[in-house]
Amino acid sequence: SFAADHVINDERGFRRCVGEAVAAARAGHIATIGITPTEPAVGFGYICADGPAEIDGAPSARKVESFVEKPTLDVAQQYVASGDYLWNAGMFIARADVLIDELRKSEPELTDQIEELAAVWDEPEKRGPAVDRIWPQLKKIAIDYSVAEPAAERGRLVVVPGDFDWDDVGDFSAVAKLHNQGRSDRLAILGDGGTVLADSSAGVVISQSKRIISLVGVKDIVVVDTPDALLVTTTEQAQRVKQVVDAIRRSGNSDVL
Fold first, then answer.
1. Global confidence as pTM
2. Is residue 1 in some structural domain?
3. 61 with 156, same domain?
4. What is the count of structural domains for the chain?
5. Which of 5, 75, 19 lies closest to 45 in space, CA to CA?
6. Are 91 and 131 members of one domain?
7. Would you say 76 and 84 are in contact if contact means Cβ atoms under 8 Å apart?
8. Residues 203 and 121 in one domain
9. DSSP secondary structure string for all residues of the chain
10. I need a labelling partner for 158 at 20 to 30 A (CA). Which of 40, 57, 198, 230 fits?
């Protein structure tokens, strides 16, 4: 299971880590790939790695002590300095039987529903009615909470450290960094609808309207201009956009989302 919104430039390094994770999965473990931190990022969860897992074919694999939620900056700095923490990139490799076994221990009702769907999946005349009946009732829970964290407590989860070039395109700050090739003194302009006039400014502008956007002397700016809504923030605060989206949804103005 891999996220769709990430960029990996070091394909060889990535393949090596996946190969080790597959070896660990074949040995009966649930494996995850943890990214070696390059900075004390507060936008990621962290994985606390323990000693070597000692698995044939996975020499880099380490036991997972715990998963940690997104930390404050001070805590993230401590994590990075310790060398024992990796970014949780949401990559999981496991045999299906191991995954179901671990899920059953923590979420038995959800597992029963999944297996009920699986039992009729290859029968089109039964699949549709079963999906209509069961799918809306399924508990919405991330694999981190339903499988990974409980498996770590039971000693069944291992992590393969990944030091390959990786970027999570999870917010507009990441978009700016990718398009500006890591430089903080550049302005990335995406979209071909509007006109952007910039003077001594850096960050990212995503324009989907016909408006003229003028930026003067602003750094780390994020502007997303669409025909029906305008977002202005900074690369530092880009992770908080989700809170704005939630507030708009609660206000009943979901037509702009």
1. 0.74
2. no
3. yes
4. 3
5. 75
6. no
7. no
8. no
9. ---SSEEE--HHHHHHHHHHHHHHHHTT-EEEEEEPPSS--SSS-EEEEEEE--BTTBTT-EEEEEEEPPPPHHHHHHHHHHT-EEEEEEEEE--HHHHHHHHHHH-HHHHHHHHHHHHHTT-HHHHHHHHHHHGGGS----HIIIIIHHHHHTT-EEEEEE-S-EEE--SHHHHHHHHTTT-TT-EEEE-SSSEEEEES--EEEEE-SS-EEEEES--SEEEEEETTEEEEEESTTGGGHHHHHHHHHHHT-GGG-
10. 40
The structure tokens listed for 86 are 């990796």
Residue in this structure with the two tokens 């989302």, named with its chain if needed: 257
What CATH number has the domain bearing residue 36?
A: 3.90.550.10
Same-domain status, 160 and 124:
no
Same domain, 43 and 148: yes
How many residues can be counted in the chain? 257
Verify that 27 and 146 share a domain, yes or no. Answer: yes
- Per-residue pLDDT tens over the stretch 43-93: 888 999 999 999 999 999 999 998 888 888 899 999 999 999 999 988 999
For residue 36, give its domain range: 6-95+142-168
